Amino acid sequence: MTILYLHGLESKLSPSKRSVLERFGTVVAPDLDYHKNPNVFDLLLKLNKEHKFDVAIGSSMGGFMAYYFANTVNRPALLFNPALPHRPVTQNIPAINTLNTASTLHFALGGQDDIIKANDNLKWLSKNRLPNTAIKISIHNQMGHQIPLAIFENEANEFFRQLDLLK
């Protein structure tokens, strides 16, 4: 399995979280500059031609990009506090009504996130729900915007377990 991991605006994939994901497959985690490159989405599509990603995983701004990527190339995605309702940088992405649908979207939201509030994501999802997409939402009441390793690991385990059940 080839996993696309998309980091947040001012972050990178930590070695401990990479280690969690490597139990499930090969991890490709490009270093993205969302501020300077408004065409990150096009870069992801080019990377997909090279790597043929099976799943996308992203956090914050990376969750935003993973949402659009997954729905464009019809792949499952695990999204941690995705910046769907609002984001601080502009990215050129496809319009919602032109998207395909991902088979599965798994959201992990922080109940204490003061950057991207869980309720804002829930409202956004209720207005922009794509048909034929299975959605799982986990709200971690004590989690903020940063994803503790234990929650990251539990969500990854559950996401990949669900994918195995769908095969």
Automatic annotation (TrEMBL):
InterPro entries: AB_hydrolase_fold, UPF0227/Esterase_YqiA. It holds the Pfam family UPF0227. Gene3D superfamilies: alpha/beta hydrolase. It comes from the Bacteria. This is Esterase. It comes from Flavobacterium micromati.
